[in-house]
Amino acid sequence: MMYSMTGYGRVVKDIPGKKITIEVKALNSKQFDLSVRVPSYYREKELEIRNKIAQKLFRGKIDFSMYVELIDEKTNSSINEPVYKAYYQQLSRVYESMGINMPHEAVAEILRLPDVLSAVHDELDPEEWKEIEKIVGEALEQCNQYRLQEGEAMYHDLKGRIDTIQQLLTEIAPVEQNRIKQIKTRIRNKLDEFIDPEKVDENRFEQELVHFLDKLDVNEEMVRLDNHCSYFLKTMEEEGAVGKKLGFITQEIGREINTLGSKANDAQMQKLVVRMKDQLEKIKEQALNIL
């Protein structure tokens, strides 16, 4: 089934001592454009996360965010007492030299000075990482399911538009027959208007007419256009990423429709071609968001 490049997944779960939130956002992009934000404690696993995302989401602009909230009394930071005391003593001397009592707020402000708080980095618990991996997998699966739902809606919309183009193509066939007759009659009338019919070489006239009408013949374009539309529908049924392939087929469909328009030389046929182009423009917009 066809997938959209737009997707979203969010999973929030508690593990021992922590609350983990994983959020994945996906938008359309020609290439695989990945942005990963994880806490520094899990930085060593960033490459592993990137590989997992690439395997699951394939293509698009992907934003991956991981948030960690401590839910117990443990902390990874501690006060560096010697540094704190050194700052305190220096500030006390400064205030004393100015004849000012050191305010209570200054005691708290010392904590913000460099090197007062130091982080304690424990090794990442393998069991904890296994739990986080499961949460990451669930978020990616949610994003993929979102993409699938969007893709199903796009599938039905695109199929309807391709069917419309093929229906308009069937309406061109009877118009084509009348168009050729009208062109022949128009050319003949113009010729009779300016040249004495008795002076016209009928054989040469027929040869030139056949050559002219051959340039206006659209049967080949109609056959190719119908084949491209059928191929488009068949490609939508394929597994995997088909967005780029559908984009190429759309270009071929546009080429044949444009040729039909340039050869039309008939108001009724031009109207049908314009309606085809309208459907094609909407197909192009949708195709940009197909995985």
Automatic annotation (TrEMBL):
Cofactor needs: a divalent metal cation
Similarity-based family: Belongs to the YicC/YloC family.
Keyword list, A-Z: Endonuclease, Hydrolase, Nuclease
Domain of life: Bacteria
GO MF annotation: an example: RNA endonuclease activity
Keyword Nucleotide-binding in record: no
Domain Endoribonuclease YicC-like C-terminal stretches: 175-290
Record keyword Acyltransferase present: no
InterPro entries noted in UniProt: YicC-like_C, YicC-like_N, YicC/YloC-like
Protein's name in the database: YicC-like family, N-terminal region
UniProt domain Endoribonuclease YicC-like N-terminal: residue ranges: 2-154
